[in-house]
Amino acid sequence: MNTFLSIFVTVISLGTIFGCLALLIWCTKDKMGMEEGAPTGHTFDGISELNNPLPKWWSYMFLFMVVFSLVYLVLYPGLGNFKGVLGWESSNQNIRSLEESHAASAAARDEGRLVQYEREMVKADDVFGAKFRELVYESDAAGEFVKDENGNRVFRAIADIAQDEEATKVGQRLYLQNCAQCHGSDARGARGFPNLTDGDWLWGGSPEAIKHTIMAGRKSAGMAAWEPMLGADGVEEVASYVLSLSGRKVDPVEAQKGQARFAVCAGCHGADGKGNPALGAPNLTDNIWLYGGSRAAVEDSIRNGRAGVMPAWKDILGEDKAHLLASYVYSLSGKQ
């Protein structure tokens, strides 16, 4: 924060604390000049006010909180730009990318700064990391991890983990923490975000494909906006043909004209309209629509194009968690 705001916050904070202390001291002094417990002469609704001091326990507790507040503000951030003598931080600030976050974390560790987020992450890995490894790696009869010829631990098959109730519960929690914001808590998706429970996959639904999608993310090459090439009539004709592929009732003459124009779409969706997982091109024959299956939505997709992006989670989750998460997602999809 700027200097003015820093000074303003400091003055308000210290002013409040010392103001409360002054009020406490003022209230502990007898200003009535009367014997303790004597009536003050003020009555209301039949109740007479007596000249009694503040309870000692309350005064001491109030004084303790004032001292505690001052000590806290010396040790930790709170007074404007003053960072506290301990150098404690809640997290690395002003981070704009994952790369910056990793660099800031490394710098904090090298400098020995007390960054609470980093400490919590290290603690969590110490406590839960072993459990993640136990769930995702093969182990022998002695409980030791199986390793390949290069000395690397061998992952359990995703299809096998998907049958493990304990593992899927952990995978579900990973899903709710990291994926539910887009795909929904029930994994049924939303407009523009795929349903993960229906067995329909843009990039393939095999265990390996799902894990690769989570690890590396997906960035669609994008569907072009075809109205400039097809014209307004062409968009309607192609929409009729596309809708007919999934058994929808359309104008047969318009659909026939659209079939002739579909050649521009076949390069990605295939001549039969069943899509191409290598390109992320959806199947147009199954009546499952990522951006809506109404005629207006289909025409809008053809007219203006579509492009979707899913971020890569490898550097955020790590491969252990991504493998476990892939197993949970695979368990939702009918296990293709």
UniProtKB/TrEMBL annotation:
Cofactor(s) needed for function: heme c
PROSITE patterns reported for this sequence: CYTC (PS51007)
Quaternary structure, from the entry: Component of the cbb3-type cytochrome c oxidase.
NCBIfam families, per database record: ccoP
Native organism: Oceanimonas baumannii
Domain Cytochrome c intervals: 166-246, 253-333
Record keywords, A-Z: Cell inner membrane, Cell membrane, Electron transport, Heme, Hydrogen ion transport, Ion transport, Iron, Membrane, Metal-binding, Oxidoreductase, Repeat, Respiratory chain, Transmembrane, Transmembrane helix, Transport
Cofactor binding: number and manner: Binds 2 heme C groups per subunit.
Family: Belongs to the CcoP / FixP family.
Pathway in which the depicted protein is active: Energy metabolism; oxidative phosphorylation
Any single biological process term in GO: proton transmembrane transport
A single GO cellular-component term on record: plasma membrane
Binding positions for heme c 1 per the UniProt entry: C179, C182, H183, M310
Cellular localization per UniProt: Cell inner membrane
Protein name as annotated: Cbb3-type cytochrome c oxidase subunit
Known function: C-type cytochrome. Part of the cbb3-type cytochrome c oxidase complex.
Binding site for heme c 2: M223, C265, C268, H269
Regions that span the bilayer: 7-26, 57-76
Lineage: Bacteria, Pseudomonadati, Pseudomonadota, Gammaproteobacteria, Aeromonadales
GO function terms (MF aspect): electron transfer activity; heme binding; metal ion binding; oxidoreductase activity
